[in-house]
Design a protein that fits this description.
The chain has helices at residues 11-22, 26-37, 47-59, 71-74, 142-162, 185-192, 240-260, 265-268, 308-324, 327-331, 353-366, 381-386, 412-429, and strands spanning 63-69, 90-98, 101-111, 131-133, 136-138, 169-177, 199-202, 210-214, 216-225, 276-283, 293-302, 335-343, 346-347, 372-375, 392-394, 409-411. With 433 residues, the chain is an alpha/beta fold. It has two domains: 11-214 and 345-429, Zn peptidases (Aminopeptidase, 3-Layer(aba) Sandwich); 217-343, Alpha-Beta Plaits (2-Layer Sandwich), CATH 3.30.70. A six-stranded mixed beta sheet has the order 1-2-6-3-7-15, sandwiched between helices. The protein is elongated, with a radius of gyration of 24 Å.
């Protein structure tokens, strides 16, 4: 990292950073975003989106590497983060801008995959025929996170166009990965391919605030046993539904205790940084039979400072204690399985040069210093921090409340602002001595 994290930079560097920020072209950015939104890159089918991003990297004059990682081989990695979608390939692309002299490496990262559109009747447009309305781009993935990925591309394109490589030392890389939505295998593949850095910014939707702490999440499955009986003599049976109620109450009490124990101000400000939910319940096979098995699936928050496995151990202890306290479940305990994507937490000190330097660059472009915040969800940040030993923050356009929703959208002005901040930050950090 540079010595510019306090915001004081030489006049010549400040002028170059301002020139790079001004070189971001809103019209090109808008066109690139709409083109990328028109590609239905649902998790597991990211090849066309990867290819489109690689073409834009090449068009911007970046040194491009486009490749397919092997998901089968990667699954044998002891740090594999889990996955939920079958796939035969992991398509990745990286575009590098090199300075004239050796120096630090910066990484701007985003994911190409999007979640399915869900109930299309809830949309006012075709989710893969994007539109611009009142300055906002609408379409699946606009917020999460093609707006951020296009901003990262635009930032390096602007630096390439406006700044002489002789004035830069080191390199900046824009990285596009798949499979973020179902665990992060794409980012792990990139890390194993050598894409680590001295500092990284993931352009997830953060409302242009700087995320220094991210929680995580694991998914779980509870198989709750009961004993079948005819409805007319239901007391002869044991309802698996009623036993799920017992376990649900224990999970709710645990949720309250875990959130009350949090002391980080960034996380406490969220109100409920570590939520627990049961999202699906399946059981019973006849309306007049006491159900003898219920299967519930849910999400358990990973607290800041925890790995996914540490959170899983907490969850196992909660379920075991609830079973031990109930006469039926003591003899017939619920079976708990933790599977799918495993999102550990990650954090970086607020006083680290990365968030300080990015905040200073943002202030120089936006006229305001963004706050440092925490988020209650998992992201690829934890892989770069934990497996890639790369200091990482998240900073991008859009509000996560619009992600995964019908009529997903992002403000184009915010995408442009993000690109300009990132362009200025790259120049300030790679300023040649």
């Amino acid at each position: 990292m540079s010595d510019h994290d306090t915001g004081a930079v030489p006049d010549a560097v400040a002028a170059r950073a301002a020139r790079a920020a001004a070189a971001v072209d809103p019209a090109i950015l808008r066109a690139d975003l709409l083109d990328l939104l028109a590609i239905p890159s649902i998790t597991g089918d990211e090849d066309p989106a990867r290819d489109a991003v690689a073409r834009r990297m090449a068009g911007a004059g970046l040194e491009v590497r486009s490749w397919d990682a092997d998901p089968v081989a990667l699954a044998r990695d002891p740090e594999h983060p889990g996955s939920e979608v079958p796939r035969s390939t992991l398509p990745l692309a990286a575009g590098t801008l090199r300075g004239a002299r050796p120096g630090p490496r910066l990484l701007l990262a985003g994911h190409t995959d999007v979640v399915p559109p869900g109930n299309r009747a809830a949309w006012s447009l075709d989710p893969f025929r994007p539109e611009v309305r009142d300055g906002h781009a609408y379409g699946r993935g606009a917020c999460d996170m093609k707006g951020g990925l296009v901003a990262a591309l635009a930032a390096l394109a602007a630096v390439r166009a406006a700044v002489d490589p002789a004035d830069l030392a080191g390199e900046a890389v824009v990285l596009a990965v798949p499979s973020e939505e179902d665990g992060g295998a794409g980012m792990l593949a990139a890390i194993r391919a050598g894409f680590v850095a001295d500092a990284a910014v993931i352009t997830e939707p953060t409302r242009l605030e700087i995320v220094t702490v991210q929680a995580g999440a694991i998914t779980f499955r509870l198989a709750v046993p009961g004993r079948a009986a005819h409805a007319s003599v239901r007391r002869e049976g044991v309802s698996a539904l009623e036993k799920l109620v017992v376990l649900h109450a224990a999970l709710r009490a645990d949720e309250t205790a875990r959130n009350a124990a949090e002391t980080r101000p960034e996380m406490r400000a969220l109100g409920l940084p570590y939520p627990t939910i049961i999202g699906t319940v399946h059981g019973g096979d006849w309306a007049s039979t006491v159900p003898d098995l219920l299967v519930a699936e849910g999400r358990y928050g990973v607290r800041a400072g925890q790995t996914a496995e540490e959170a899983a151990d907490e969850l196992r202890a909660v379920v075991a204690a609830a079973c031990a306290a109930d006469p039926w479940l003591r003899a017939h305990p619920a079976a708990l399985t933790v599977a799918g994507g495993r999102f550990s937490s990650a954090e970086i000190p607020a006083g680290h040069p990365l968030p300080l330097g990015l905040a200073a660059a943002a202030e120089s472009v936006l006229g305001r210093r963004p706050p440092f915040v925490g988020v209650p969800y998992g992201a690829d940040m934890r892989l770069l921090v934990r497996q890639g030993a790369t200091p990482t923050v998240m900073f991008g356009p859009g509000d996560v409340r619009d992600a995964h929703a019908a009529d997903e959208h992002v403000a184009l002005d915010e995408v442009v602002a993000c690109a300009r901040v990132l362009a200025a930050w790259v120049v300030r950090e790679l300023a040649s001595a």
